[in-house]
Design brief:
By secondary structure, this protein is α/β, with parallel strands linked by helices. The chain has one domain: Metallo-beta-lactamase, Chain A (4-Layer Sandwich). The protein has ten helices and 17 strands. The strands form three sheets. It has a seven-stranded mixed beta sheet with strand order 6-5-4-3-2-1-17. The protein has a seven-stranded mixed beta sheet with strand order 7-8-9-10-14-15-16, with helices on one face. Helix 8 runs parallel beside helix 9. The longest helix is centred in the N-terminal third of the chain and has 26 residues. Bound molecules: zinc ion. Zinc ion (ZN) binds next to loops.
Length: 334
């Protein structure tokens, strides 16, 4: 037999075995799911805005949320599948992918994550939740990744759930209520609720509408970095009301005192939290300038905590936060 013919036979046999093993690994094997009560949040990335997207400082992977029985990846930006692997998270275990709005730091990893959730597009499983704009108008998520796979030779894909303001979605025993926020284009934060425990996510939103400076002048709709704020005089009252009633809030801050017109900032967040019933606030979605040339994140969290009286923590790339919020019920069951 000619050498090339021997190689051909060898390669055919080895390839067959490898392909069968790969199918078992990615399309057939049940992902290992450790049943545990409570909430576990792993921040695959804590960065936001274009500078963080292009530098990956901080990373833009979004966060993996295990909310009792629900496993959901929220705002998977660029790098989400890679960082999930680094954090030991099997994305095939996901029940849902949540996209708050159509900006790259929130969706650039979503299509790959959907492929993982649908077991290499071999299964009909999981939900992808997002504003209508993400699916139709801007179509940042392709038809294929919306589950229209008929002509592709793949049979898998997710169920698409188009979010509507305040219309709750029941998902794996939890209730997710989309909260419309203010950022440019259709964008939803959410409240996720189970057994009386509420977790809030602000997504990207403006909050401060007007402030008074030392000279007594009221400044409205300022763009850029603000140095002369003395007192906030107008703000998003609906957001203070809604997010002020959650137990734990995940807030996309971006900056301390810049881009009020699109972002809550730590100046706005501290105002929202003061007098609220929030017990813990996790700060994320930091602009590159929060880290370089100096890491301002600990100072930002301290400012929020000092002003509002609410415990605040600036989360890091790859960090996992555990919330033992269903303990009461667990001990009753035991
Ligand atoms: Zn955005």
């Amino acid at each position: 037999m000619a050498e090339w013919a021997k190689l051909d036979r060898l390669l055919r046999e080895k390839s067959l075995k490898a392909i069968e093993a790969s199918a078992r690994e990615w399309k057939e094997k049940q992902p290992e799911i450790k049943k545990k009560r409570g909430v576990e949040i792993t921040f695959l990335g804590t960065g936001g805005n274009p500078e963080a997207v292009i530098s990956q400082v901080p990373r833009t992977g979004g966060f993996y949320l295990q909310f009792d029985d629900l496993r959901m990846l929220v705002d998977p930006g660029l790098g989400a599948p890679l960082y999930a692997r680094e954090c030991g998270i099997d994305l095939r275990s996901l029940d849902a992918v949540y996209i708050s709005h159509g900006h790259t730091d929130h969706y650039a990893g979503a299509e790959t994550v959907i492929e993982a959730m649908c077991w290499a597009m071999s299964c009909r499983r999981g939900m992808v939740l997002g504003p209508g704009q993400v699916f139709a108008e801007n179509r940042v998520i392709s038809c294929y990744h919306q589950g229209q796979t008929e002509k592709s030779g793949y049979r898998g894909g997710p169920e698409v759930v188009v979010l509507e303001a305040f219309r709750p979605v029941e998902i794996k025993g939890a209730r997710l209520t989309p909260v419309p926020v203010y950022h440019g284009g259709e964008n939803y934060g959410f409240i996720l609720e189970k057994e009386g425990f509420k977790l809030g996510y602000t997504s990207d939103t403006s909050y401060i509408k007007a402030y008074r400076n030392a000279a007594g002048t009221v400044e409205v709709g300022r763009v850029g970095t603000v140095m002369d704020l003395e007192e906030i005089v107008d703000f998003r009252r609906d957001l203070k009301e809604i997010f002020g009633r959650v137990d734990v809030l995940i807030a996309n801050v971006t900056s301390h005192n810049s881009w009020f017109h699109r972002h809550i900032t730590t100046l706005g967040l501290a105002h929202l939290l003061r007098g609220s019933r929030v017990r813990l606030c996790l700060l994320t979605h930091f602009n590159y300038s929060c880290v370089v040339p100096e890491d301002l994140r600990p100072l930002m969290a301290r400012y929020v905590e000092e002003y509002s009286g609410v415990a605040a923590k600036a989360v890091r790339d790859g960090e996992t936060v555990l919330l033992d919020c269903f303990r009461k019920l667990s001990s009753q069951e035991a």
